Amino acid sequence: MRRMFVALIALALLGVPAARAVQPDEIMADPAKEARARELSRELRCMVCQNQSIDDSDAPLARDLRLLVRERIAAGDSNSQVLDFLVARYGEFVLLKPRFERQTLLLWLLAPVLLGGGGLALWLQIRRRSRSGADVPMPPLTPDEKARLAALMSDDATSR
Fold this sequence. Notes:
- By secondary structure, the chain is an all-alpha fold.
């Protein structure tokens, strides 16, 4: 019975939609502008939580940033103008997806370069191994080697 109860609670929790941090008093009257604000809020990092967007964060600073985004949209700024304003104020760190610029070049290119370098090293290692003949089968033993091996094995068996 207890398992059934736990399963029902788990199932009910899976059906609950994820709660957003946007408060009812923050929502704009114009649905198009609100959609733009939500889209921008998902692209901006909460400076307190650092791994959440301001759309998901309950931190007071995230609320202030959400209100600032809506204020800039109401003033007639485009999405890029709002982002530029926030980057000028808080730096590139405020963006969850940093822009591809000279300052962020290392951030964007380091992972592909490391992956490519690792693949190249693996390919060179496999190629070198195949050239060294490690996979070449050993030639059969000569009659002299067979006799010597038999003598060594009979000596080893008698010494035990």
